[in-house]
Amino acid sequence: MEYEELKLTANGIRKGIIDAVYHAGCGHPGGSLSAAEILAYLFFKEMNIDEKDPGKEDRDRFVLSKGHATPGYYAALAQRGFFPASELTTFRKLGSRLQGHPDMKKTPGVDMSSGSLGQGISVAVGMALSGALSLKNYRVYALAGDGEIQEGQVWEAAMFAAHRKLDHLVVIIDNNNLQIDGTVEEICSPYPIDQKFEAFGFHAVTVDGHSFQELEKAFLKARETKGKPTVIIAKTVKGKGISFMENNLSWHSGALNEEQYQLAMKELERERIFLCQRS
Q1: Which residues on adjacent β-strands are paired with residue 141?
Q2: 259: left (phi over 0), alpha (psi -120 to 50) or beta
Q3: For residue 1, pLDDT beyond 70
Q4: Domain ranges of the chain
Q5: Considering the entire predicted model, what is its pTM?
Q6: What distance in Å separates the CA atoms of residue 157 and residue 178, rounded to the nearest whole number?
Q7: Phi and psi, residue 67, nearest 5°
Q8: Is pLDDT above 90 for 2?
Q9: pLDDT for residue 278
């Protein structure tokens, strides 16, 4: 898939995020929007998955370690065809299979229920170890938040992954520099993230998380790296794509009113038209 197509896919994911949060009247749009390009690249370029057979044995595995960012996750799954996009409007509603945190027992395409921050990377490490022990060829990807890596469990998992040389594991850090109470630097600085992971035995790559060219190079480098897991630190903008949400801490979580919803969708439609004209 060419870069322009991926940009259109990311735009569609952002539309899905806004639709889901607006109709739910709640949710976490900021950290979902920041990860749109990451999710688009993973689900439409990088991973071996099949929407017609979500549980196929040799599929690559994905864990949304920052489990509150389900609007982005569900929007990506819907775009890929795991369920109808119209279902996004049922997000967080009673009886919906699209709950506030992902549910592997109910939602097609979800490999792991998550939401307790810090634990998703440990689960991904377990999946990768299982694959290694059973001589399977699947790869494992975990998407975590930069505030999330303040959790000690993340570093226990990192130490174990490097010790077991799980080179088919890729951890992606959505480094938008904002968490619920402020900047990650103000709350409990994890910087320099790359050097910390390297000290634990990872191969570390830092990229612009909104550049498909840089994401592609990073994921290719991860495939070439042998004997150690890879971490991709993706520098992103929280709320990316919506002018009044970008780098705005108040949109870590929250609901859009009708005026905000219309403005957000208008901005995204304007971007879609621009991308179509270029492609």
Answers
A1: 62, 170
A2: alpha
A3: no
A4: 3-278
A5: 0.97
A6: 23
A7: -65, -10
A8: no
A9: 83
* Residues 97/73, Cβ–Cβ less than 8 Å: no
Q: Read off the pLDDT of each residue in 248-270 and give the average, rounded to a whole number.
A: 97
Residue 271 has pLDDT above 70, yes or no: yes
Residue type, 173: I
Residue type, 277: Q
In the Cβ-directed half-sphere of 53, how many Cα atoms lie within 13 Å? 7
pLDDT digits (tens, 9 = 90+) for 129-174: 999 999 999 999 999 999 999 999 999 999 999 999 999 999 999 9
Give the contacts of 238 (CB within 8 A, at least 6 positions apart): 30, 31, 33, 34, 176, 177, 178, 245, 246, 247, 248, 249, 251, 252
Residues making up the chain, counted from first to last: 279
Instruction: Tell me the CATH class for 3-278.
Output: alpha beta
Alpha carbon distance 149, 78 (integer Å): 28
